[in-house]
Amino acid sequence: MTLPAPTVPPTPTHLNPAALAAAPPPSFSLCPPPALALPGRIPAAPFHPHLLLDLHCFPLGTAPHGSAIMSFQDRAQHQISQLDKELGKYEVLNNFERQTSVPKVYVVLGLAALYFFLIFFNIAGEFLVNTAGFVLPAYYSLEALFTSQKADDSQWLTYWVTYAFLTVFESAVNAVYWFPFYYTFKFVLVLWMALPQTAGAQIVFRSLLQPLFARFFNASSY
């Protein structure tokens, strides 16, 4: 009696190497599936892409935040280049850069960071802030005195009047004892008032001092 040959069951597709090789690679998506409209069921609200960051739509390193970072880096590099160009007007800094091979812009930024660090932790904070409020404005004031223009004279006269009122006010109210990090605040305020790019002293004078004292002086003098 001859027995029939045993029947070998087919190899499942998920275990068949040939089938696995021929099958397309699986695809994964973080996007939510489209809403299904079932009979008797209200379709789901449409999906709005702005409510969910579609990560798989952006290759690695090209997500929207990457362009923002690059834009910030470009702006920072532009500001450093502009500062280096301004510092190039001073021969002392140019000679220092040639002798030490250290970019002058990095030296100035490092010293500025150290200066701010000392003020922030109130290490000789009063002296450093008063020095910052005097040296740079004094330089520009002397420069204005040796020119025939009157606009810069008015600008720096306004600064000195505003700075004097600030100094008297802080002494009268003893601000350093009840205002946390007062010298840090004053340092930023003084720079804002003194720098020609911001001219904050003009704003303080027109907003506060002029309304207080204008009635004591002839209006034609303004």
UniProtKB/TrEMBL annotation:
<feature type="transmembrane region" description="Helical">
    <location>
        <begin position="105"/>
        <end position="121"/>
    </location>
</feature>
<keyword id="KW-1133">Transmembrane helix</keyword>
<comment type="similarity">
    <text>Belongs to the DP1 family.</text>
</comment>
<dbReference type="Pfam" id="PF03134">
    <property type="entry name" value="TB2_DP1_HVA22"/>
</dbReference>
<protein>
    <recommendedName>
        <fullName>Protein YOP1</fullName>
    </recommendedName>
</protein>
<feature type="transmembrane region" description="Helical">
    <location>
        <begin position="185"/>
        <end position="205"/>
    </location>
</feature>
<keyword id="KW-0812">Transmembrane</keyword>
<dbReference type="GO" id="GO:0016020">
    <property type="term" value="C:membrane"/>
</dbReference>
<dbReference type="InterPro" id="IPR004345">
    <property type="entry name" value="TB2_DP1_HVA22"/>
</dbReference>
<keyword id="KW-0472">Membrane</keyword>
<feature type="transmembrane region" description="Helical">
    <location>
        <begin position="158"/>
        <end position="179"/>
    </location>
</feature>
